[in-house]
Amino acid sequence: MRTFRHDRSMCVLHTGNICRRYFWFSTAVPALLMLVLILAVPAKAFAAEHSYTGVEVEKTDKYEMRSARRKMIPGFPAVPHYPGAAVNESYVKTEGKKIGYDTTYVVDAPVPEVITFYLAELQKQGWEILTPPDDPTSQAEQTIKARRGNQILFVTAEKEDQHTEIAVEFPMHVPSP
Fold first, then answer.
1. Is the CB of residue 150 less than 8 Å from the CB of residue 131?
2. Residue 99 contacts residue 163 (beta carbons within 8 Å)
3. What is the pLDDT of residues 117-165, one digit of tens each?
4. Quick one: pLDDT at residue 49?
5. Domain check: are 92 and 140 in the same one?
6. Does residue 32 sit in helix, strand or coil?
7. What are the φ/ψ torsions at residue 172 (nearest 5 degrees)?
8. Are 122 and 130 spatial neighbours (Cβ–Cβ below 8 Å)?
9. Which of 34, 68, 73, 123 is 20 to 30 A (C-alpha) from 49?
10. Which of 37-46, 71-80, 148-157 has the lowest mean pLDDT?
């Protein structure tokens, strides 16, 4: 019988018994590493869709909604951006083939100035104004409804505390191919 001596333990090499240390480093450690890798891949995918990109996902059996704070959600349709307005939150919601977008901005500007800007810029970009604001000079909440092709757009400006909040919404629709 041949023995191998290491750190106060004896390993029997030719009797069919396996050294405990050899077992841990040849069998148990690789198995634990494999388990860590298996668990790390879904965690990495989850993190990629959530915290690291800043996009949160809410899924139900009817729809999926992605939202982002302080930045525009990827894929948001091009619309005029009021100078100096900061993105507060943005969303994209999908339900089957339908898709809708919504974002809110905050800006230090009066409501009439914001709504007048959007009236002019939307028309410059080819939007047809379907419903103009009731009184563009009013400090009260103002809404514009516009259309370009098959897209409908709502722009609302209202005073919130010390700022003006701008809401830009593309309601749920089936995009054209």
1. no
2. no
3. 999 999 999 999 999 998 989 999 999 999 999 899 999 999 998 899 9
4. 42
5. yes
6. helix
7. -55, 130
8. no
9. 34
10. 37-46
Tell me: do 27 and 81 sit in the same domain. Answer: no
Give the DSSP H or E segment for 86. Answer: strand 86-95
Residue 72 and residue 30 share a domain: no
Query: Cα 98 to chain center, whole Å?
Result: 18
CA atoms of 117 and 103, how far apart (whole Å): 17
Closest CA to 72 of 82, 58, 92, 87: 87
Tell which residue, 107, 103, 81, 85, has the closest CA to residue 93.
103
Question: Does the pTM exceed 0.70?
Answer: no
d(C-alpha 4, C-alpha 114), whole Å: 84
Q: Which residues neighbour 135 within 8 Å (Cβ) at sequence distance 6 or greater?
A: 142
Cα–Cα dist 9/121, whole Å = 82
Please name the amino acid found at residue 70.
R
Amino acid at the residue 8: R
| Token pair of 124 as six digits | 């410059």
Q: Is the same domain home to 164 and 100? A: yes
Structure tokens at 59: 């899924």
Tell me: do 117 and 70 sit in the same domain. yes
